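Entry:
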Amino acid sequence: MFTFTAPDGTELACHVRGSGPPLVCLPGGPMRASEYLGDLGGLTTRRTLYLLDLRGTGKSAVPADETTYRCDRQVADVEALRVHLGLERLDLLAHSAGCNLAALYAARHPRRIARLVLVTSAQWALGLRATPDERRAAAQLRRHEPWFEAAYAEYEKMLAGRDDADYLYDAFFYGRWDERAQAHAARTDDQTNERAEAHYAADGAYDPPATRAALTRLDAPVLLLAGALDGGPCPALVRRAAQCYPRGRVVVQPGAAHYPWLDGEEFFVARVAEFLAAS
């Protein structure tokens, strides 16, 4: 791990894992420490992962101004990391809510992106959000699972915004609700900065028409990876997001939900590594 200083003076932490060409990684949550990304299914055998702890998460410092948690205001942090690493252009991977930060970075700094990987993201920055009906339809794909009835009841509570929803609904975010997935889900709360999460998509964070227009200048290849069982976003929504990228390409991972590197390591690593290595 190393630290570097953001333009506003906040000290940020970045974890380094693996070997090979550098790949900067942005976590989702939003505002969840990068620890949950692990080794991205073994991608560390192909690339050196630079996993950024967003401000106020993981080992990164809490900023003096909480409004800097807003997604658009963290673009400068990603640029500061690029400069710190001495990269003229970077390969960038982001997961879930972190893909909004990646999209805003690409829109503001299109010439600094070599290749972009967006993993299971609905792209709020582009004006695209998963609907409750899309989430329900994806959940119904799991109705054969022994845990389905109990989990679905809690999922409906979550979709209704109820505070009494039991975290059994997390089962729908994983392709396999096994001990590994349950342990991964159990860490969500202690890895997430809830105060920061509340600011991430605050008013002014996103200007979808402006972002879509800016992304027309992005010449870098973009891989958008969707999980076949994911409802937020479902593959159809990911395909809509891909239309905003001139060189966007969609891959749907069978049997995967929102954390595809846990649901099928070989598929995930092979597709991502192949895309990053293409000439």
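The longest helix spans residues 265-277.
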